[in-house]
Amino acid sequence: MMDDDYDRGDQNGDQTDACVEPHVDEEHDVDTEDMLRHIEPEVLLGSAKGLENFETLKKAAKDCMYEGCGKK
Prior knowledge:
By secondary structure, this protein is mostly helical. It has one helix at residues 32-62.
């Protein structure tokens, strides 16, 4: 029978704590909310461009690439 706790160790079999808090370096501490507020417009514009590119690729996939090739 397999032990239900098999995934709680590292590759060496040492026990690890599943709820480890990430170490935050006080010198490099950043305000994540402030950072996200500044990059949000870029992310939204990038998403819009990505959607436009996706629609172009979707249309190109439906079109014939070569003359004489019919859709199957």
